[in-house]
Amino acid sequence: MSQTPYQAPPNGWRTFLIVWVTQSVSVIGSALTSFAITIWLTTGLYPDPSQKAELAWALSIFNLSFAIPVVFGAPIAGAFVDRHDRKRIMMAMDFLNGCVSVLAVALIAAHALTVPWLAVIGVTTSIFGAFHNAAFDTSYAMLVPEQRLPRANGMMQTIWALSGVLAPSVAAMLIALPVLARGRQLPAFVSFLGLIPDGTMLAIGIDGITFFVAALIPLFLFIPSPVRTDLKDSAGNQKSLWADIREGVVYIWHRRSFLWLLGTFTVANFVGGVQILVPLITKYQLSTDWTARGFTMETALAMITTAASIGGLLGGLFITAWGGLKRLRVFGVLVPMIVEGTFTLLFGLSGALYTAAVFTAIGAGMTPILNAHSQTIWQTQTPRELQGRVFSVRRLIAQFSWPASSFLMGALASRFDPGAIVAALGIILAVWCVAGLFNPYLRKIEDRDWIEAKALERAAQSAQ
Question: Which of 166, 199, 225 corresponds to the end of one domain?
Fold first, then answer.
């Protein structure tokens, strides 16, 4: 089935830049909240060393309350945004998340923020985020000309990396400001900050402001949504939301090229679960080197995590400036994954802090490049009116392996050497992607006519 190339609106790129700036500020604001709450749990709610178990439990609940809803709620969110105005959904979700930030500030001010409340906040924020992301990911594909999509996707990847670089230092500064103001160590015009009892409130409050700004700006912009003409079945009955979700599943299932690409990301995300082993490798495998260099465990781990963030940022800037491959974009996915797998292997074998940091930075730098190419493939090959359903099912299939891997890594690390586990998984990723270079389904993933012809054949076989 051939499709007429989509024509973006005349001012689409300018509109994207405006939305990108406001959404970028909101992403950084959310990273501030996440870091500030982690600090609040560590130093405020569970400061005593004897509360280590309670702190670990609280951190796990907080992170899972974000991770689970956004992954498993994605198909519902995707089907919903394909039925409604995507700009309004983005505005509504940003506004609601701003209200959640206000609630969190109020709970801290009243000394009423508890772990159950954190779970509620995490779940609601994650659900709103799932709907917002489904709307935003499909909206800028309506704004940006096809030839500029790789650059736009690179810009999006840059922001996620930048938030990882900026959030810890900015959040730490914001948390400290009220204390500094009360000690009269700040200029007089900001002395009012001393009235804030807890710096965490300031960081979360700024996040809330970024949400409200992000909700307001699209009101003045034209962000198109595709018009659905298939909301009724052949009998004239209204199609259910579950029918839409099933349509997203079937669309991918009949297109084996997309399945192979998803399988590759499932493997990559499973390998990504090794991130939870980084502290163990740092503490034990690299300890001789960082001790000799005068580092502590905390500063050594900070160096590695900062190196990863900087690598991701540089990778995002690179793909933004380059604009990515214009054809055979699947090589822009597989080759960076091979590099990432190779440097994951080297990190697992490393015994020196500096080289481990370099290996981590190079591996992390590949992520924005491969993600930008992958996103462009999906955006250019999937009809705009189907992207919400298809992208959300895609997210579920590709990302479910990450929490599964995170659980499994802990079990494996209790029995095997963490460095050996990381090295083995790096080899698996590299070998899988090298094989993918010769996979005919992956090599033809941008041949739309061939993919649609094969999809029609499989649909006919399924109907028999």
Answer: 225
Residue 171 lies in a domain: yes
The span from the CA of 90 to the CA of 215, in Å, is 7
- Assigned token pair, 237: 């009955």
User: Does a structural domain hold residue 197?
Assistant: yes
* Gap between the Cα atoms of 270 and 402, Å rounded: 5
3-state secondary structure of 412: helix
Residue ending a domain, among 225, 255, 277, is 225
For residue 218, give Cα distances in angstroms to 20, 21, 142, 211, 427: 11, 11, 14, 12, 45
Structural Rg of the chain based on CA atoms: 23
Gap between the Cα atoms of 116 and 110, Å rounded: 15
Residues 6+ apart with CB under 8 A from 384: 6, 138, 141, 142, 226
Entry pTM: 0.77
**Alpha-carbon span 33 to 198, nearest angstrom:** 13
First to last CA, the chain: 20
Kindly report, residue by residue over 95-140, the tens digit of the pLDDT. Answer: 999 999 999 999 999 989 898 999 999 999 989 998 998 898 888 8
Structural domain including 97 reads 1-225
pLDDT tens digits, 207-253? 999 999 999 999 999 988 887 777 776 666 777 888 888 888 899 99
- The enclosing domain of 191 has a CATH number of 1.20.1250.20
**Helix or strand holding residue 79 (H, E):** helix 74-81
Dihedrals phi, psi of 183, to nearest 5 degrees: -90, 10
- 455 contacts 286 by C-beta, under 8 angstroms: no
Residues 194 and 268 in one domain: no
298 and 261 in a single domain? The answer is: yes
